[in-house]
């Protein structure tokens, strides 16, 4: 209706909460505020007011500081065992691919660190056994073998995990890999010292893998740090009315012209909106926005406490360890499909 303004949530804050409680408080605020915004109600809750805004502001700082990942993952995908056509036919996907099958995942891993890193292992709920493999030609014979000790990526270098070379082998599949869907994987790395030995420092990156029949097309924008907030519902296969979640990520524009994120969509929710939380003279406001500018040669963060992608009326439980597909639409006409891993990154940071 004309004359209507966008719904806004306004909170005034007067006291400070200890830093160690920020991630938990930020999650509490997000869950509460998003439910309120979905119902289109302007709320002033004096019981919650005393601590939420300070938590939000410092939560943004923590998220921004810890958002950059130690390795840059691009072009990730996992080979489908069930095509879209097979999944839509009268034959069930289970008949097309029995449990216990195999597949492989591929990606490019870039190491921006000053030390070499080693991909030591990969974990996913989609397979009972996950191994790092390499395919080599011995004369005219192609041989595939496990990689002992992991895959080393030198400082400021990259490693391509691709068909015919290094790859992640998924053995004894626990589910059918249906084209167009997604799975989650955890990549476990070691940081090596100057002599090439393990330094004792490790890190894990959680990524989503789109299930495809061929490698994804390259994109002009670089999207990293993707994650979605869990929404478990009541434990059934359906979600209560008004269930919400949110997706966070960073977008780097390496081009010479500005780009703009216009919209997003996913089959996991009826409504997808871009939202923003801002500070106005010690007052926090959250509202939908029409788009997000990504200036040339800059990175824009969609993070808790700032810009984010809201999923409204979530259709299915979003469980930790799973992944969903999200499709981003840009002003230039470019469309990027992402596999979004579902987990609570704030709680992981706090643990």
Summed up, the helix count is 5
H-E order:
EHHEHHEEEEEEEEEEEEEEEEEEEH
Mean pLDDT: 82
Q: Name the overall outline.
A: globular
At a glance:
With 351 residues, the chain is mainly beta.
Note down, in words, how this protein is organized.
The chain is mainly beta. The protein has two domains: 9-66 and 224-350, PCu(A)C copper chaperone (Immunoglobulin-like, Sandwich); 72-216, PCu(A)C copper chaperone (Immunoglobulin-like, Sandwich), CATH 2.60.40.1890. The chain is built from five helices and 21 strands. The protein has helices at 22-38, 49-66, 84-88, 93-96, 345-350, and strands at 9-12, 72-79, 103-110, 117-123, 127-138, 141-146, 151-153, 158-161, 166-173, 182-192, 198-212, 222-228, 244-253, 259-265, 269-280, 283-288, 292-294, 298-302, 308-314, 323-330, 335-341. Strands 2, 3, 4, 5, 6, 7, 8, 9, 10 and 11 form a ten-stranded mixed beta sheet that branches. Strands 1, 12, 13, 15, 16, 18 and 19 form a seven-stranded antiparallel beta sheet that branches. Strands 17-14-20-21 form a four-stranded antiparallel beta sheet, with no helix packed on it. A hairpin with a 2-residue loop joins strand 15 (269-280) and strand 16 (283-288).
